[in-house]
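Summary for the steering committee. One of the milestones for this cycle was to obtain a three-dimensional model of the protein with FE2/S2 (inorganic) cluster bound, which we needed before selecting residues for the alanine scan. The sequence and ligand used are listed below.
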Amino acid sequence: MSTSFVLNGKPTTLDADPNMPLLWAVREVVGLPGTKFGCGMALCGACTVHLDGQAVRSCVMPLSAVAGRQVITIEGLQSAAAKAVQAAWIKLQVPQCGYCQSGQVMSATALLEKNPSPTDADIDGAMSGNICRCATYPRIRAAIHAAAQSFKASA
Amino acid sequence: MTRESHASRQPTRRTFLKRAGTATAMALTIGFDWAGPARRAAANVAPSAGAVFAPNAFLRIGIDDSVTVIAKHVEMGQGAYTGIATIVAEELDADWSRVRVESAPADAKRYANLAFGTMQGTGGSSAMANSWTQLREAGGKARAMLLAAAAKNWKVPVVELTVEKGIVYHAGSKRQAPFGSLVRMAASLPVPEKVALKDPRDFKLIGRQASRVDVAAKVDGTAQFTLDVVLPGMLVALLKRPAQFGATVHSFDATAATAISGVVKVVQVPRGVAVIATSFWAAKQGRDALRVEWDDTHAEKRSSAALMDEYRQLADRPALSARKQGDAAQAIHNAAHKVSASYEFPFLAHAPMEPLDAVVKLSADSCEIWAGDQFQTVDQRNAATTAGLDRQQVSIHTLYAGGSFGRRANPGSDYIVEAVSIAKAHGADGTPIKLQWTREDDIHGGLYRPMYYHKLEAGLNDKYELTGWRHVIVGQSIMADTFFAPIMIKEGIDPTSVEGAATIAYAIPNIAVDLSTTKNGVPVLWWRVVGSSHTTFAVEAFIDEVAHAAGADPFMFRRKLLEHEPRMKAVLELAAEKAGWSKGPMPKGKGRGIAVSEAFKTYVAQVAEVSVDETGHVKVDRVVCAVDCGTPINPDIITAQMEGGIGFGLGAVQYGAITLKEGRVEQDNFNSYRVLRMNEMPKVEVYIVPSTLPPTGVGEPGVAPVGPAVANAIFAATGRRIHVLPFPKTGAA
Ligand code: FES
Ligand code: FES
């Protein structure tokens, strides 16, 4: 059975089990490995992608649920908010092991796209679903604030 | 620095796959051990690699000026790649933007961890400490050869030359030459036997904020982890393991599993039954459908509560002495004031963000492994034994590890051996197989930080001076029954059970530290900061109780007992000062607590500030951390490791516990094995003690003091002590 959707701006049709989680569809069927597997139960955020602009956990999203919709993975990030987030991540040297960071960047970008001036409470709300076992949390928070600054300046 | 130059340091997917090919394999093999001083530089020995100058096993310089540093340690977040490259680049005077890092192959002859002796591996926060002199010399000798080459070219004395950012200058004749242009000449020169190392005052990279070599690729999703390895024809395997440790396969029915589209084969291996499929999703569905009957004859069937009952009783029975100084029992017997307490620590899972995984390509005469490998020599040996090959036939590609915290370095190489055994059962036909653990596999998978029971007693004289200290530790040994046992366990004492307790730094005239080592079927392992993950809590929570009994300020009380330990005292004072300790007690509902520790020769003190609401809910607001790790190689990475260690340790003391019921682990995933999240992370301030002493590690020591600092802060806020970990679910009340 095939499912058609728009992946990173490209119309895509996958001939795969419609129950297969989107995570494994993008990783193993499409071959985009940036989105990570951490828990498989929407508990850690490592697999976060954007579905019609919303941050969602692709590990629990069946492929069939994205039919006709827009999916963006870390490989397809293009927006000004995303660029600001990634630049701030580098400036503040956020990653340690790095495994959670695709998901962190996706969640942070979705936050900034909706809310260009997030407060600490907004950051807690948007980012507490993304676990970082290396506990890069203080830098993630600082980097989101820094990204918000530069994003606003550029807008 | 541009994004591109960052990105160019990373093995991309394409270069990674190419690495298996001959061109880069060739480059990898031309380095050599420079034990023989008369040897020529490798590029000269191997003229076919003429475009590269590789004077030793740790370094290659190309005609394009690129500097490739070969890292013998795994990068698992701790910053080892950057640290290693910094040391080499410093003595080489390389241009940091042209430095890239490549992981070393498994080869203990060239790449042993000198702290481990003759074994290649990463652990014990030793990467910087053991590499320091070795890599400074590697960089310094290469620099000397490049200088000699320039001097020869220009016919000028070497002493007239200077080097800056990868360019050799001769001021007198206004000539300059980038490293790349000197590579061919340098490669023909002898490797110097000795080289003068820089005066630390001349360091340009060490002690500065050199940017991490791995950050850009970890921000755009291109960093390659084992999860991301794809090889032609590769299959994915999931392994069904027993729910109880020590159970074995009695029988299995693969009918439903093999009916799943994509499932290729179902095979029995020593640790369970593996479903091999064309994709993760097929393997997962296959495993869900697989039916296995287990034989629990030799399984551990007790609950962790029953084990803890046994531990409590053992604490009152005779034990082995790990430290004896004076007569603690007598001193406490004679004391004017007595204090006693016990502390209980649960099993803990490491739960690295990347669930364990390994790719194995096994054929009749070779075994190739891709993994975030932390224990190359051990894994090589265990893989060889499992495969029935010679150790030399096993090669390892060490990739980025998505965290480890000790889990990927285990004496039995569990995940590697599983992967090899599955590849063998599949037919050892050269088909690459990726073994993927799920999070549930990880939480259920054993090799936990052991559960411990600590019992402490102290005696104070009539002037409230501490005269006697008695500490009994009950729990499993990490080293027992491993190949480390004969080397490490002395007179029955596993040092990892008592480090941080037997080594207590406080000046106490009478000290007795005893160990009662238990045995049960739960597999255990070192966990970030190892023994100090529990001993520091016991010592620092208890000394706080003693200080309170003495009516003393907890900081002043500790300080007085550390007069003879200048480095420990200095971090304690620095943390207290920066935290504003002298400002006195905090407002109602808030509290401040302090703790200090030494682990792997790194000294860390932390002051925690907490708020406790009426319901007893604890929020850690701020942690001030002072660290002395000798020469700070990269202050930003040191800061990051302290921040990370604090978050990791905090999650463990607040929530972490693996419990067993009838031998079955009761937690499954991050819902029941809670870890720290963004909204729970305190503000962290890190202060680094300036030093020119040799560097020590920072990956683990930041974890040790945070638990007791927070527990002591909770006491300051509420008057309640914490004796059972993790903290009560309802908070401190
Ligand atoms: S893998 Fe999807 S939330 Fe953890
Ligand atoms: S950087 Fe390691 S889990 Fe977040």
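Key point for the committee: Chain A has a mean pLDDT of 97.
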